[in-house]
Design the sequence.
């Protein structure tokens, strides 16, 4: 008799493929480490790049300074969509390795770029890297663990990425305070990319067989929209609009990353305008993703116990309250509390949304559904940067923060009204 955490699944992948965290612990742990390096690549920019735009390239307009986030978000969103399709067609590992090959020039461009256009191009490449690698590590962990521990798996995946992002943001802030904004902070990114490429090439194993094995024993869905033989266009429509849970998750993901773009691009400039040092800004830039990252170790597991919907709703409303505190605060203590609340709200939402998509999508097209969801979610970076930049230029950064707070609260209410509970136990 098998335990709930480990299932032997015969079928398309051949007999003997085992689903479950315990049965695949070595590969799962390796993928956690690889995703930490994915997060670290993003963390090298969180503290330094907004200040680089202001102090080195002398970009005074918020909209101009945030073009790198627009480039990153738009590229990552589109890459997420294709990552799911490519991983179904060619396998997960080739997509992961390709993502790390694309990452290699990023630190070089950030260090030596003589004009702002070079920095924007570096973020185009970073968006491709993040879309291919983060999407693939998500899909591979879902493949390995099976349905029973999906929330826990997503908690570990997202925690590893965002804890590494936080640690790198704090480290680069400290490095920049002592050795300047370039080149020293970005040497961490160069080391991350080289190490991750080696691990992905030499140690990571293909997991597509696990998804095929799960699909072979997957019960026929009651909803005819959710049968296994669907085109990519049909999957995009179901995930984006037709299924109430998937569409609610997609809009919540977009709004969540819309407010993350605000935190990434506007918060450091807002804090600097109030006289905070680079080191203090680095601490605040790290505090939010640190709470977000560590919190997901609990919230992913919690969603496996109590379901997905209510955690997502609560998380969006907590984020909205945190943004309101940023708008009203004027010093480090208030902003530190706001960053903690923002991280806690995001921790409730982030792994739970991915787990909900994994609950609903059929294993035969789950990778593509994850890609569509992540297209919407990471499109929020581009939308958030454009919206926050335009509002900050026209009315000031505080108005931008209040507007995004209102949108985040509205998104949580949409989840409460539209989403159905997706966890199979619940």
Sequence:
């Amino acid at each position: 008799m098998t335990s709930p955490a480990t299932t032997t699944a015969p079928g398309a992948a051949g007999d003997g493929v085992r689903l479950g965290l315990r049965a695949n612990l070595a590969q799962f742990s390796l993928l956690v480490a690889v995703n930490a390096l994915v997060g670290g690549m993003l963390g090298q920019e969180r503290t330094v790049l907004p200040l680089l735009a202001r102090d080195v390239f002398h970009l005074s307009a918020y909209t101009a300074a945030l073009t790198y986030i627009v480039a990153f978000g738009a590229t990552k969103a589109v890459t997420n969509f294709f990552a799911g399709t490519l991983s179904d067609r060619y396998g997960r590992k080739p997509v992961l390795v390709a993502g790390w090959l694309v990452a290699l020039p990023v630190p070089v461009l950030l260090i030596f770029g003589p004009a702002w256009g070079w920095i924007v191009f570096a973020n185009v490449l970073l968006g491709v890297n993040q879309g291919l690698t983060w999407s693939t590590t998500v899909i591979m962990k879902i493949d390995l663990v099976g349905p029973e521990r999906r929330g826990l798996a997503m908690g570990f995946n997202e925690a590893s990425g965002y804890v590494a992002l936080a640690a790198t943001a704090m480290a680069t802030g400290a490095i920049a305070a002592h050795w300047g904004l370039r080149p020293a902070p970005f040497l961490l990114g160069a080391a991350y990319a080289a190490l991750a490429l080696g691990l992905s090439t030499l140690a990571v194993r293909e997991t597509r067989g696990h998804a095929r094995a799960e699909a072979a024993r997957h019960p026929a869905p009651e909803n005819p929209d959710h049968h296994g033989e669907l085109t990519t266009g049909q999957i995009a429509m179901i995930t984006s609009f037709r299924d109430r849970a998937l569409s609610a998750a997609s809009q919540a993901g977009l709004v969540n990353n819309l407010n993350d773009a605000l935190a990434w691009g506007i918060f450091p400039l807002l804090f600097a305008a109030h006289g905070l040092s680079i080191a203090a800004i680095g601490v605040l830039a790290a505090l939010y993703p640190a709470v977000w990252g560590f919190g997901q170790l609990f919230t992913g597991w919690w969603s496996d116990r109590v379901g997905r919907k209510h955690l997502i709703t609560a998380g969006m409303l907590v984020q909205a309250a945190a943004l309101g505190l940023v708008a009203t605060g004027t010093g480090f203590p208030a902003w530190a509390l706001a960053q903690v609340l923002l991280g806690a709200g995001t921790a409730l939402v982030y792994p739970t949304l991915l787990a909900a998509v994994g609950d609903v999508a059929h294993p035969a097209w789950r990778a593509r559904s994850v890609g569509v969801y992540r297209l919407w979610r990471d499109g929020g970076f581009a939308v958030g940067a454009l919206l926050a930049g335009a509002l900050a230029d026209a009315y000031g950064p505080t108005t931008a923060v209040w507007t995004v707070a209102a949108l985040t609260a509205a998104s949580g209410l949409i989840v409460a009204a539209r989403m159905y509970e997706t966890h199979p136990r619940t």
